[in-house]
Design goal:
2 helices, 4 strands, four-stranded antiparallel β-sheet, alpha+beta
Length: 60
């Protein structure tokens, strides 16, 4: 799974490693857009991460 962050200024970052994901979530603010890209066998699903607190807790 890849996390994608678009910050309030429009800067896009992505994270694929667990340490990168933790950093991305720690830096994400309430005005940022955070997406999770979940790879499937035939397609890729993209989900909005709308609960940053829970996402941070789940990443450890």
């Amino acid at each position: 799974m890849t996390l994608i962050r678009v910050d309030a200024k429009g800067v896009v970052t992505q994270a694929t490693r667990i340490t990168e994901k933790r950093t991305l979530l720690a830096q994400a603010g309430p005005k940022d857009l955070v997406l999770a890209a979940w790879p499937g066998q035939w397609s890729q699903d993209v989900f909005l991460v709308d609960d940053l607190k829970t996402a941070r807790e789940e990443m450890g």
